[in-house]
Design brief:
Number of helices: 16
Structural class: mainly alpha
CATH architecture of one domain: Orthogonal Bundle
CATH topology of one domain: MetI-like fold
Helix content: over 70%
CATH class of one domain: Mainly Alpha
Strand content: under 5%
Order of helices and strands: HHHHHHHHHHHHHHHH
Distance between the termini: 14 Å
Length: about 325
């Protein structure tokens, strides 16, 4: 078997195993939540008889391992269960919310990825100059700030002090694209803030690693301009680690969007999961958790596969 095929097969198997392990953790986590689901649903009318009836109706009187296997089999069939709160299929509840989350993450990625690569190139081009030191200091500061702090700071500045944007990212079906982009402006900036910093530092490191190669020294001795050396010779050979970093940060964008959605009350999957936790809507919490986990694992697998495919030593084994 070709080394690339063998490596990709191992990565895929590891991804499936990771998802199975995550499903166990999610199910176990919802099982050990404090309180009783049936009592929470019934509220003040939670008599012992009513609680027992609800538990039988929801199948909560069955062993945990049995319910886990049923839940796992349902997911494999595309059935995410039924919401405890409103008795609707979970698939119907997560559809629009997932689309909103993917839209927010996509817009943030469209802003963050080109900007991060551009700043990384600028930092390398003017390496060890005030420009490079300023960019390094700014990115280090950005990485140190949590998303909720950045979000609330942006709300204070651009929704309270200077009312240029709405503090609530309200979107709805049928909303025009310009209006939707204006509504998500602050959440996009919040998400891009930390992501740009991390990708920029990794892009700079990847290009600088290539700049130490002998052929770069030869190009410098020939008198080629530094900008041309960075763009024409170093950048193409640093694409593999840069692509890997970009894809991993895309996974962070989708999964890390939960905090940002809560801060800006954005109707996405993260906000839906937080609301489901408050209502003890276990099937909805489990479904949202698995969707986030599957997205993260899938994007990390994509990063691994792209790194394998762009590795010349694996593409041309001796």
């Amino acid at each position: 078997m070709h080394p690339i095929v063998a490596l990709i097969a191992r990565r895929l198997a590891l991804g499936v195993l990771s998802l199975w392990a995550v499903s166990l953790l999610i199910f176990a986590g919802t099982e050990i939540l404090p309180g009783d689901v049936a009592e929470a649903m019934l509220g003040q009318s939670a008599t012992p008889e009513a609680v027992a009836a609800i538990r039988r109706e929801l199948g909560l009187d069955r062993p945990a391992w049995e319910r886990y296997l049923d839940w796992l089999a349902g997911m494999l069939r595309g059935d995410l269960g039924t919401s405890y709160a409103n008795r609707m299929p979970v698939v119907a509840l997560v559809g629009d919310r997932l689309a909103n989350t993917l839209f927010l993450a996509s817009v943030a990625a469209a802003v963050a990825v080109p900007l991060a690569i551009l700043l990384g190139i600028v930092a390398v081009r003017w390496r060890e100059t005030p420009v490079d030191r300023l960019l390094s200091a700014m990115t280090l500061s950005a990485i140190s700030m949590p998303e909720f702090f950045v979000g609330y700071a942006l709300i204070f500045l651009f929704a309270v002090t200077w009312p240029l944007a709405s503090p609530i990212a309200a979107v709805h079906p049928g909303m025009a694209l310009p209006d939707r982009l204006a509504a998500v402006a602050l959440p996009v900036v919040t998400l891009a803030f930390v992501t740009v910093a991390h990708m920029m530092r990794m892009t700079r490191a990847a290009i600088l690693n290539v700049m130490e190669s002998p052929y770069i020294e030869t190009a410098e001795l020939k008198g080629l301009a530094r900008t041309r050396i960075v763009l024409r010779h170093a950048l193409p050979n640093a694409l593999s680690p840069i692509i890997n970093v970009v894809v991993i940060n895309l996974a962070y964008l989708v999964v890390g969007v939960v905090v940002v959605e809560v801060v800006f009350v954005y109707p996405g999957l993260g906000q839906l999961m937080v609301d489901a936790v408050a209502k003890r809507d276990v099937p909805l919490v489990q479904a949202c958790g698995m969707i986030f986990a599957a997205t993260y694992v899938l994007l990390n697998l994509t990063a691994d596969v792209l790194a394998i495919l762009t590795n010349p030593r694996l593409r041309h084994p001796r």
